[in-house]
């Protein structure tokens, strides 16, 4: 996945932490959001674009278009922060033949049917299964809210939650 410097799961997508801490710390010139519903809404796209920092381009794309763009090497030479709402999207990228060397689970809000495994991460059974799929395929999966936090394997939190 040429040009993609960080992959983050964050159900808030582009917001303060992503716009300031992650974008600045990673020195990105593009934030890519993969979300079919938001990509279909001009209003939602406009809101996310307003949250992006000045000078950072945004790509808010449906899954098929994003996967095609990544496969075509459209982000070569760029520094892209890829943000998705759920780990299932990343499993779908793998199914498309794209390699994910590392994934950061940043924030998944507490919702009905989820189990909180750390302060900022609550998982549904499907999300946990997707994370296990990523781990089983050799992807390093971490849980890190902001760049200053220690890069901790998600397995530490999954194991604590099972006790």
From TrEMBL:
The keyword Cytoplasm applies. Transmembrane segments: none annotated. Pfam families: PTSIIB_sorb. It is found in: Cytoplasm. Residues 1-163 form the PTS EIIB type-4 domain. InterPro entries: PTS_IIB_sorbose-sp (IPR004720), PTS_IIB_sorbose-sp_sf (IPR036667). Keywords: Cytoplasm, Kinase, Phosphotransferase system, Sugar transport, Transferase, Transport. Coiled coil: none annotated. This is PTS system mannose/fructose/N-acetylgalactosamine-transporter subunit IIB. It comes from Oceanobacillus aidingensis.
């Amino acid at each position: 996945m040429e040009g993609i410097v960080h992959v983050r799961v964050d159900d808030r997508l582009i917001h303060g932490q992503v716009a300031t801490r992650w974008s600045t710390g990673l020195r990105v010139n593009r934030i890519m959001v993969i979300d079919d519903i938001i990509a279909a809404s001009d209003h939602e796209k406009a809101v996310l674009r307003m949250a992006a920092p000045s000078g950072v381009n945004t790509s808010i794309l449906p899954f098929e278009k994003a996967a095609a763009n990544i496969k075509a090497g459209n982000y070569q030479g760029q520094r892209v922060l890829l943000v998705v709402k759920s780990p299932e999207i990343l499993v779908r990228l793998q199914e498309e033949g794209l390699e994910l060397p590392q994934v950061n689970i940043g924030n998944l809000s507490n919702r009905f049917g989820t189990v909180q495994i750390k302060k900022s991460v609550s998982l549904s059974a499907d999300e946990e299964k997707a994370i296990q799929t990523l781990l089983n395929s050799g992807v390093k999966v971490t849980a890190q809210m902001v760049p200053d936090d220690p890069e901790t394997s998600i397995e530490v939190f999954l194991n604590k939650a099972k006790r």
